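User: Run a structure prediction on this.
Assistant: Running it now.
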Amino acid sequence: SKTAEALGENGSDEALTVLGEILRDQEEGPRRWARRALVKQGMKAMPVLLGALSAGGGTRDEAIAALKEIGPQPAEEVRFLLSDRGAYAGAAKALAQLGPGGVGPLIRGCYTVDTDLREQSLNNLGVQRVKAAVEAALYNLGADKNNTIGPALKALGFIGDRRAVPTIIPFLKVKDNREAAVTSLGQLRDARAVEPILATCLETQKR
């Protein structure tokens, strides 16, 4: 902890590089202290934190936590990582937590031709319950969006906007999407979904 704190106080490029290495430590304690030291450097720590978004597990989580602590400013730089196949998953997770500046790029990501990016965008917008993402999620329920229907249904359930109920109900009849539709409608807690869900349950029991 004292090592990370001292490096944070130093603030040189060399010190930040070492903190980036500590951020990738297998132990939680060193990662946490490295994150705290990097946060003190603010935007100067961005290269290290952006690089950590391509890592997995605790390293990525600490990097995201640091970006949140720094404030909304990092969103402008993080958004460029959505086009990086090695870092887009971490970038999407971070952007969903960085306020309006981060949400905007993710909503645009829901309309891209890149299926993987659409899925990551929908998943993270849903988990963060971003109301502004409802239209983007509905768009991904289109007939030509088979690969993202499941993530879109899940996102709508998390977000909790009941206006989506009539659009979700028909997916109860689609085998591949039935489970996600039932879960989503259950989360929305709308009386209009009760009868269709019961009918679906009875129909599947007969088969």
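The two ends are 61 Å apart (CA to CA).
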